[in-house]
Amino acid sequence: MASVPFDQLDGFIWMNGEFVKWADAKIHVLTHGLHYASAVFEGERAYGGEIFKLKEHTRRLHDSAKVLGFTIPYSEEVINDACRQLLRKQGFSDAYVRPIAWRGSEMMGVSAQSNKINCAIAIWQWPSYFDPEQKLKGIRLDMAEYRRPDPRTAPSKAKAAGLYMICTLSKHAAEAKGYADALMLDWRGHVAEATGANVFFVRDGALHTPTPDCFLDGITRQTVIELAKRRGLAVNERVIMPEELSSFSECFLTGTAAEVTPVAEIGQYRFTPGEISLQLMKDYTAEVTPKASVIAAE
């Protein structure tokens, strides 16, 4: 994490088609996105100067905006190019990339059809989401009080800012008790995900992961499923009940920030980071490493 507040970092931010100084990338306090969470965003990582699955992330950004009822005024190609240019302008090789789009301040109220749609991209250096040493041993998760909502009550297929309020509350509560994160159930009581990452379990050499019907089918999740299948591992996407957790030997999280992170504990349940979790960690690292970097290293 940054040692200074994020609004005081150096460099540039791409905002509404222009590169502006970091300190000048501001919005008004009466911006609709702040008051009513009418904002969508992406979390991406650059490795070796290349943003991993940039096109897929930008496509999801546009799709999320459509779910929230607005259209981003910049094409996917423009945003992709802006992300690449900004990464070079920031002078980073490995970094975190955050595009965001939101309704502006032209109307203040629940209704905001006339508001300008803004778009910005920020890039900063962000190391491992979890402590690297603890990550290898497996992190500890609490059981969250809040649950992922019924998709009939929330736009669960969008990476929308408002959906993360209960994630922040759940992660804060877990950290206050000494845990790294929390596992969330869905409104039916099924295992869903962590506060910002998808979850996988291992039993008898096969992967089991919740069906993403009320939370995001993460891009990292999709990548890890592909990597597992390349190794001939069975992947079962299905309903998982909390009482099943005692039957799994391994557990790990996946996400752009979390990458592949083994889990050692979820509440009363214990897991041992084993061969499959550690192998998929290595496979994911190899997958995101630009091929030119691998050749140069050889």
From TrEMBL:
Role according to the record: Acts on leucine, isoleucine and valine.
Taxonomy, superkingdom: Bacteria
GO biological process, one term: L-leucine biosynthetic process
Catalytic activity, EC: 2.6.1.42
Family, per entry: Belongs to the class-IV pyridoxal-phosphate-dependent aminotransferase family.
PROSITE patterns: AA_TRANSFER_CLASS_4
Name of the protein described by the UniProt record: Branched-chain-amino-acid aminotransferase
Annotated Gene3D superfamilies: 3.30.470.10, D-amino Acid Aminotransferase, subunit A, domain 2
InterPro entries: Aminotrans_IV, Aminotrans_IV_CS, Aminotransferase-like, B_amino_transI, BCAT-like_C, BCAT-like_N, BCAT_family, Class-IV_PLP-Dep_Aminotrnsfr
Annotated PANTHER family: AMINO-ACID AMINOTRANSFERASE (PTHR42743), AMINODEOXYCHORISMATE LYASE (PTHR42743:SF11)
UniProt key word Transmembrane: no
Pathway field: Amino-acid biosynthesis; L-valine biosynthesis; L-valine from pyruvate: step 4/4; Amino-acid biosynthesis; L-isoleucine biosynthesis; L-isoleucine from 2-oxobutanoate: step 4/4; Amino-acid biosynthesis; L-leucine biosynthesis; L-leucine from 3-methyl-2-oxobutanoate: step 4/4
Organism annotation: Tianweitania sediminis
Cofactor(s) needed for function: pyridoxal 5'-phosphate
Enzyme class: transferase
Keyword entries, A-Z: Amino-acid biosynthesis, Aminotransferase, Branched-chain amino acid biosynthesis, Pyridoxal phosphate, Transferase
Molecular function in Gene Ontology: branched-chain-amino-acid transaminase activity
Pfam families according to UniProt: Aminotran_4
